[in-house]
Amino acid sequence: MLRQASAKIFQTLVVLVIVSIASFSLLKLAPGDPVVLMLGSEYSQDSYDELQAQLGLDQPVALQYVRWLRDFVTGDWGNSYVAKTDIFAFVVTQALPVTLTLTACAIVLAILIGVPLGVVSAVRKDSAWDVGIAAFALTGTAFPSFFLGIVLIWFFAVKVGFFPVMGFVAPWEDFWSGMLHLVLPALTLSTFFIGMIVRVTRAAMVEVLEQPYITAAIARGEPHRRVIWVHGFRNILMPLVTVIGLQLGAILQGAVLTETVFSLPGLGQMLTGAVLGREYVLVQAGVMLTATLFILVNLAVDLSYPFLDPRLRAR
Amino acid sequence: MTMTDDPIAPQRRARKQARRSMFIRRPFFTVSLIVAVGFVACAVFAPLIAPYDPVQQSITAMMAPPGGAHLLGTDSYGQDILSRIIYGARYALLIAFFAILIGATGGLILGTAAGLTTGWVEWVLLRVIDSILALPSLILAIAVIAILGQGVDKVAIAVGISMIGPFARTVRSDVLQVSSQLFVEAAGLMSITRLTVIWRHILPNIVFPLGVQITVRVSEAILVSSSLSFLGIGVTPPTPDWGLMIAEGRGFVSFAPWMSGMPGIALALLLIALAIVGDGIREEFDPKMRGHQ
Where are the transmembrane segments (chain A) (predicted)? Predict the structure, then answer.
């Protein structure tokens, strides 16, 4: 188990290095000379050389990469060309908390809604409930989230006037207002994920319910609820955790869209603004951060299997 | 070699039997297919169907509600929404087509390479695929757009590149499956060169599963490309793109909800139809799914 884990960690490190090389090349491939961009339209050759040396851009590319990686790991992500603010501070204190709050709320919401629906679907297989839930899951997965967000704004905020339309209030500053601002975005973001979770839960639960230990539990006269939620549920945890890990990327990309719909100042707005403003350093930071998050969560998922399933510990 | 030695012959026969009755057995599939074909027809015959020029602006007909001269209303520039939706189908499907072409080709090359190599080459190729997959397709597409800039062709390239990873992963597993078959081993034992084995025996057998993948991923390509346009970094106005139209209507949602609503319904309808069609095709034709039924 330890050997497997260390092999997995090594693989993850290699993937991180490849992703970092790709992110680094993003800056190299981007059109325009960063030195020119910083100096503006008028500059002398001397000031150009000076700034180029100052930025280390006169060094060999490999060395530039090593320096860049060192700076990235130590949190020195450079300044935004235009806003002249420190990117790391901006991302960590402003953008990331918004995105992570939204993502976490959406995941929790999706689990709370998706798992029971999936279980009901599996227990009442081929019933009208099952068909209805399957149709809902498919619609939820296929429906474009950004349009769903607009529909929700139109209905709840404009027609009913129940929820605030846009903006972000940090839940750790004003909990209720923050939550109220998060309801519609989290619902928007979680819809496709609910569909995913329903499908995975149903498939896993259907399989589990056919196992001998379920029959044994029923034969022992254990209450139905206990059979499903204790004996059954424990055994669908693994596929559930896997799907959450694998779909994290999809959730993060959904967050980018949801943030734009609801004007939340998170990573998504940062990325879009960066592309429009040609701030490649910001794009790079966003790309690196998303990939790292995704890779680390999936490593955690892989490493968590032995804890979720005692049968895997022996191997 | 007789027909019975062909490992996919039984599947082929099963497929033929399924084809006859599939449309009756799966009414939702049939309806969805008709909807999807309808969108394709809109895209192909856009100039014949559309009542107005999609980019013709009109000061007298700004934000007209649905009904009357403009069936689905007009937007803030007085452009006819119905015509823009019909032309939008053209852009959506065109971008999806080229994106899939790029993604499937790239995925085929990378996936086949990873599936056929062994040892450290395979290991490195797998890590490369992992790295591509570590980026959600929209984020990867945003990064490519950042380098290339905006426009219809650039969106197609960006979405295409973002699809290489998923395609590569499935192609690799298909290649592994085919490579483990006896006829590949037999061909190797007959000292047929490796390249011929790949070309004559392995590649033909992964074409069909690749085709299934393509139909399943069309909706993803459309979703990502319209997402880019929605974020305002995809195609540029006044191109009649659904994502762009939804974004433009966002600010007017309280008093002109049809501006976002109509293209949004078109997009949602197409995506749901494609999802049902994709599910149907995958369940009917994907050998890996058969065991689960």
Answer: 12-30, 87-119, 131-155, 175-198, 236-262, 282-305
* A246 near B CB under 8 A: no
pLDDT (mean) for A156-175: 70
pLDDT (average), residues A216-242: 86
Report the chain A residue with the minimal C-alpha distance to residue B143. A283
Helix axes B137-148, A280-308, angle to 10 degrees: 160
Question: Does residue A136 form part of some domain?
Answer: yes
Is residue A35 within 8 A of residue A46, CB to CB? The reply is no
- To the question of pTM greater than 0.90 for the whole model, the response is no
Q: Which residue from B143, B147, B253 is facing A150, i.e. has the nearest CB?
A: B253
B253 phi and psi, to 5 degrees?
-65, -25
pLDDT in tens, B98-141: 999 999 999 999 999 998 888 889 888 998 898 888 888 888 89
CA distance B147 to chain A (A): 5
Q: In the CATH scheme, what is the code of domain B25-46+77-291?
A: 1.10.3720.10
Q: Tell me whether residue A207 is in a domain.
A: yes
Q: Span A214-228, mean pLDDT?
A: 87
What pLDDT does residue B287 have?
A: 59
Contacts of A29 in chain B (CB under 8 A): 147
Please report residues of A whose CB lies closer than 8 A to that of B230: 146, 257, 260
Residue A106 domain-assigned (yes or no) = yes
Domain ranges of chain B: 25-46+77-291
Structure-block tokens of residue B89: 């189908």
Contacts of A19 in chain B (CB under 8 A): 131, 134-135
A72 within a domain of the structure (yes/no): no
CA separation for the pair A11, A16 (Å, rounded): 9
- Looking at the complex, report in whole angstroms how far the Cα of residue A144 sits from the nearest Cα belonging to chain B: 6
pLDDT tens-digit series, residues A115-125: 999 999 988 88
A22·B131 Cβ contact <8 A: yes
Which residues of chain B does A295 touch, with a Cβ-Cβ cutoff of 8 Å?
A: 134
- Taking the C-alpha atoms of residue B152 and residue B227, their distance in angstroms, rounded to an integer, is 13
Other beta carbons less than 10 A from residue B75's beta carbon: 27
Segment B142-151 mean pLDDT: 87
